[in-house]
Amino acid sequence: MKKLVIVESPAKAKTINKYLGEDYIVKASMGHVRDLPPKKLGVDVDKGFEPEYVNTKGRAKVIAELKAAAKKCDEVILAPDPDREGEAIAWHLFELLKGIIPPEKFSRVTYNEITKAAIQEAFSHPGELDKNRVNSQQARRVLDRLVGFKVSPLLWKQIKGGVSAGRVQSVALRLVCEREREIQNFNPEEYWVLGANVRKLIDPRDPFEVKLAQINGEKAEIKSSEQAEKIRAELEQSTLHVARIIEKEIQRKARAPFITSTLQQAASSVCGFTPARTMSIAQALYENGLITYMRTDSVNIAKSAQEACRTFIGAEYGNEYLPSKANVYKSRGNAQEAHEAIRPTDVAQTPPDISGLKPEEQRLYKLIWERFVSSQMVPARIARRTAEIETDGSNIYLFRATSSEIAFPGYMRASGIEKAADRKNEDEDDENGETRLPPLAEGEKLDCVEWTGEQKFTKPPARFSEPSLIRALEANGVGRPSTYAQTLSVLDKREYVTKEKRSLVPTEAGLRVNDFLVGALDSLFNVKFTAEMEAQLDKVEDGSVEWTDMMNKFYKQFLEWLEGARDMADPESTKELLTAFEQVREWAAPVKRGRRTYDDKEIIKSVREKFDEDGQITQRQHQMLFRMACKYIEQLDAEEVKKLGLEKPEEPRTETHRKLELLRGVEFDAPRKVGRRTYDDAKFCASLRQQVQNGRRLSERQVDALDALLLKYAEQIEDFERVKKNFNLTRPEVSDTGVAGSLLGLLKNIKTWNPPVKRGNREFNDRTFYESLAGQFESKGSLSEKQIAALKKIVARYADQIPDYDLIREQYGLPEPRTKK
Fold first, then answer.
1. HEC profile of 29-77
2. Which of 55, 161, 448, 606 has most Cβ atoms within 10 angstroms of its Cβ?
3. Coil, strand or helix: which one is 614?
């Protein structure tokens, strides 16, 4: 019987098939065969975050072919890539085919390169699926799905268009937007660079440039044109001499071989490739057996490859280019050392020796080959000569000029950098201030050809490019090798960023999305928190943390953040409203209600200060701003009114005046305190009266409350039946009074209440809520359907303190008991 080998791609299958015998059938899964459903959450939070997997769309034919092939074999060898994603693909294939092939007949093989030796070695030592690695990928998938599906709807309410939030993509967007704000807020400061073109008094008399470095032993800091002119005038009266010549040799070490992030950065800088294109080209090189696996964060090199490289260097360049011991590089803390760096599979295959590659593949292979070979060579030695030139006089002005020459190229022989360095030395002046110096002796007098001065301004930090953003993500521990290219592709696809001369510039949509997410969910889309989650995923992979435990801890915090976010208003809309108030010139006079004075101008000032400080306000505050903008609509620009959707507020209803008049002679009940709240009918009625007197129409909810007061004090209102008929007063529909009373009775004897829970700016307190409902029931004799539903949830929460709860649950239709997790 045959053995079925499954890899991800046809190209990989074709290469591996060449190295295996007739007993093997090699098939490609074309990537993932199962995933979470595309149009629903697909995660059962209550069942330990159990994912609901469905067959990947467009894979029906592939799955059918794999099942047909499995029926012809008695063993399945799972051979996808050696990372989390590859392990997950292998596990999904196992789940898909275990009904055809017994589980014990499955095995897993991994390899870092697709060469005959590596494949035969891997297949001679098959292993098992790494369930920890599978769980780590599963946790990442569930995390990303929960964040995307729960947060994106909040965005849709605030921002139109195809916007979305992502656990890593939104952090990457945040870095880009924060850099843009930093640039926008940057205040350039003037400074001056003074120097001179000088020459020897004897041949060679070619001029060379020197730059002012110190004044009287202190760093030269020239902040204004006045200061520059004063110094220039003094310099013109002075003479110059060589104070000292400083010669030293510095070493420049080779860089480590490529990992995913550094390859993407170098390919962008040298070849102009996007990260996604770099990974696509590297994938082709890997599948054709030319390089090792390209998704890695380890700079580790296999001993055999290291030895082969050292042999090649000795033969090709000479033993003087070989260090006494092999160069070893250290990976960052959470790198997977079992993986290798990206290197050529056969160092003897030099770039010119490889034929049949596309031009872009040739360029990338050359980059990888040169970086690997140079990483195993000795440092370059650079001879650096610095001339310090001083003036005569009371103030000592020190000028410097530096030149560098390559004393020994070392690793540059392979990387080609010495050629670029030679070209740089041919320039009169490179950007680092180096120049070509003639022979000079200490004490030698020099002639000044020209004093130079240039006004400059400090520059803001540079915008991120794709390589520098990847570098920032990696440095902050955000994302992993397999996610960088995809993260940047999403930012581009969503049109959150555009490219200007390879710099990433956030679009208006990107800034709005970021402002909302940072304002509403700062803690979730925080660089530090995202890095901590990546570290937790690494711990799941090494088996030290259970993925469901990690998810439980995250989800509890996530729900609290979401609760707070739902109460936050869109920052851009808030900004537009606050800007509109700048047109108001005549404010309404302050109004006193009870002990408080309401002043529109001061309220707007207070909200503006909060928004400037926090970058956000609540939905309730936003609604207040909108209502107030409607109040001052006559003073606002017509275009502004249309843009904000403002409408002139309606006049108070005629019947409202009449209802309030009926309550004028009523003797209201004494205020009653329920929990932390005090209910005062007289005070409430007075506030409604004040609102109507100010020309503001009552809301529907306020009208209902006013009607409730009329019904409550019916006995004190003359000819109430006629009043009731005229105003069509009816008591609101309520749920069964007996049920409400019984449920409140159950909670009366609760001994231990849960501590209050804070979500965003709101505090949820079971005991206070119960006392509030009990007070309302005592006053009105009824509760609404919504209040009854909330009451049932609270009863279920304290099931362990209620005798015979199961019996009571059936009687009143209560939920399952809610226990603490």
1. CCCCCEECCCCCCCEEHHHCCEECCEECCCCHHHHHHHHHHHHCEEEEE
2. 448
3. helix
Cα 180 to Cα 301, 495, 503, 575, distances in angstroms: 39, 16, 11, 18
The pLDDT tens digits for 20-75 are: 988 999 999 999 999 999 989 999 999 999 999 999 999 999 999 999 999 999 99
Helices 805-812 and 737-748: angle between axes, nearest 10 degrees: 160
Q: Return the ∠ at Cα 525 (arms to 519 and 526), rounded to 5°.
A: 100
Cα–Cα distance between 309 and 304 in angstroms, integer? 9
In angstroms, how far is CA 334 from the centroid of its own chain?
A: 19
Q: Which of 117, 80, 92 is nearest to 6 (CA)?
A: 80
Ramachandran quadrant class, 818 (left: phi over 0; alpha: psi -120 to 50; beta: rest) = beta
Cα 420–Cα 421–Cα 422 angle in degrees, nearest 5: 90
Strand 73-78 and strand 2-7: pairing?
parallel
Q: Among this protein's residues, is 293 annotated catalytic?
A: yes
pLDDT of residue 550: 96
| Catalytic residue from among 53, 111, 286, 293 | 293
Quick count: other Cβ atoms within 10 Å of Cβ 394? 8
pLDDT digits (tens, 9 = 90+) for 358-396: 999 999 999 999 999 999 999 999 999 999 999 988 899
**Per-state percent for the chain, helix, strand, coil, to nearest 5:** 50, 15, 35
Q: Please, is 426 exposed, middle or buried when counting C-beta atoms within 10 Å of its C-beta (0-12, 13-18, 19+)?
A: exposed
Classified as helix, coil or strand, 762 is strand
- CA distances to 114, 130, 242, 810 from 117, rounded to whole Å, are 8, 24, 64, 69
Q: What is the pLDDT of residues 289-318, one digit of tens each?
A: 999 999 998 999 999 999 999 999 999 999
* Strand residue runs (E) in 675-785: 677-679, 757-759, 762-764
The CA distance from 210 to 229, in Å, is: 18
**Using CA atoms, how far apart are residues 446 and 198, in angstroms rounded to an integer?**
6
Q: Which of 480, 527, 583 is nearest to 178 (CA)?
A: 527
Residue pair 773/742 in contact (Cβ under 8 Å)? The answer is: no
Residues 6+ apart with CB under 8 A from 541: 84, 132, 133, 135, 136
Cα–Cα distance, 434 to 425 (Å, whole number): 8
CA atoms lying within 13 Å on the CB side of residue 28: 13
Alpha helices in 581-699, H assignment, sequence order: 600-614, 619-631, 638-644, 654-662, 681-693
Query: Which of these, 466, 476, 81, 419, lies nearest to 267 by C-alpha position?
Result: 466
**Which residue(s) pair with 310 in the sheet?**
none
Considering only CA atoms, which of 728, 714, 730, 737 is closest in space to residue 784?
Answer: 737
Which residues are CB-contacts of 243 (< 8 A; sequence separation ≥ 6)?
388, 389, 390, 398, 442
pTM of the full structure: 0.71
C-beta contacts of 769-773 below 8 A and 24+ residues apart: 769/675, 769/794, 770/744, 770/794, 771/674, 771/675, 772/674, 772/675, 772/677, 773/744
Residue recorded with tokens 């070509």? 436
What is the rounded distance in angstroms from the CA atom of residue 4 to the CA atom of residue 594? 83
Q: What is the pLDDT of residue 737?
A: 55
Neighbouring C-beta atoms of residue 514, cutoff 10 Å: 24
Q: How many CB atoms lie within 10 A of CB 177?
A: 21
